Structure formats: C-alpha cells, structure tokens
Amino acid sequence: MSTFEAIVLGIVQGLTEFLPVSSTAHLRIVPAFAGWDDPGAAFTAVVQLGTMAAVLIYFRADLWRIGRAWLASLVDARRRREDVDARTGWFIALGTIPIGIFGVAFKDQIESGARSLWLISLALIALGLVLLRAEKVAARNRGRIGQLSPRDALVIGVAQAFALIPGVSRSGATISAGLFRGLERADAARYSFLLSVPAVVLSGLFELYGILDERQAASTGALAVSTLAAFVVGYASIAFLLRYLTTHTTRVFVAYRVGLGLLVLALTAAGTIH
Length: 274
Hints:
Elements: H1 3-16, H2 23-34, H3 40-58, H4 60-73, H5 77-82, H6 84-105, H7 107-111, H8 117-137, H9 150-162, H10 170-180, H11 185-213, H12 217-247, H13 251-270
Helix pairs in contact: 1-2, 1-12, 3-11, 3-12, 4-6, 6-9, 6-11, 8-10, 8-13, 9-10, 10-11, 11-12
C-alpha cells in the first residue's frame, strides 16, 4: 500500500466511521473504485483505532466520569440503581457482550466472505430503510441515556453486533436501535459513540498484535499513516454529526446509503468493479 492510498483510506475512515453510512463498506468500495487491492478486515479494524482515539479525546470528561461511577457501583448497589453515570457504564458493558460473542463466532466469515461487494451493497440499502423506518416511528420519549433499561441496552448491543457485516454501519445500526427505543437523535448518536469504545479498542488491538507479530513492516507503516489521518478527520466528524442531529433528521444519510448501494450493485453486476 502506497502512502497516498494510506492517507486516502485514513480520511475515508475518519469521514465515515461516525456517520451512519458504514466506514467498513467505504474502505472496501473506495479501493474497488480506484482499482486498489482490498485492504482487508484486519486493516479496517486497526485503522478504527484512530477514530476511536478521537472518541476517547472528544468524550474524555464523560468517559472519565462514567468509568469512576461504574467502578464505585461495583461495591455500592444503591449507586448501581440511582447514579446515571454508573447505569450508563453498566449499559455499555452489557451492550458490548453481543458483538464480542458474534465477533469471535464469525471471525472467519467477517474476514473473507462478508467483504463481498454484493453483500455490502445490499446491507447499505437494507440498513438505510431500517434507519428511515426508525425516523418515522421513533417516540423520542426518553430524555437521556440514563433512562434506558438493561433490556434497551441489550437490544442496542445486538444492533451493534450486526455492524460486523460490512455495509450495515455501527453508528447506523445503534442510532436506529436507539431511536426505536425512544432516544432523541443526538442522544442515540452519543450513546452509539460511547458504546463503540470497548468493542473497537479490543478488536483493533487484537488485529494490531497479529500484524506486528507477523512483522509486516510495510503494512505497519501504512497503518500508522492511515490511523493518524483517521484520527484527525474523525474528531471533526464527531462534532459535526452531534450538531447536525440536533436540528436535522437522518434522511440525507438514508438517501446516500440507498443510492450508493444501488450504484455498487449496478457496477458489480456489469463487472466494472470487482
């Protein structure tokens, strides 16, 4: 992978990780359009550490507060019930379980067959329609994340697990689930970002260890460049999406997903991209 490819893919990751359009799909589609090799699932997982660093810095105050409250709640039952930050910490832990189970169970499929352009295009369209439905039926009667229940947290966690399929989108799936469970758009997006921290950090570090263990020097250099670019662009993307969702719906992303999915289907069928 050239330095130019690494920079482009890092920018793509940063732009699309937090928007409900699927960064994994774009890291597969952009190289296909450009005639480059598929960077692979391991590369995708590691580059996500750049955007995850952006989440850690952007939400550092929230994460620190939640982490302290959660640790205190381990020995304080009343705090587990009443402290909003402690409850949020438990929700994040509970919501991470499904993606951990499915990630281990379907690791081989995720790294091979699931990167099919046919599957990606269909997933783009399908989740776009789900997101559109969530916008139409969302009650938005939950004031804050802390008003969620353990069942809500598990449902949103299962939705996050579907993001293992390229094209689904982690933020798209979890924001949709959050809307279905009554959250406001901005709160659903905020919880989506917080929920992604454990899963992305653990999967990224696991794949990074594998790459370093195989002493893939060229891959390591490209990863460093891409990860840095993803961090810079990703930080700006978080701020943009949170502001945008306070006054706008997600329908522009629905239109983009469906349009891109149809385009990829047509080009793949015609043999233009592979």
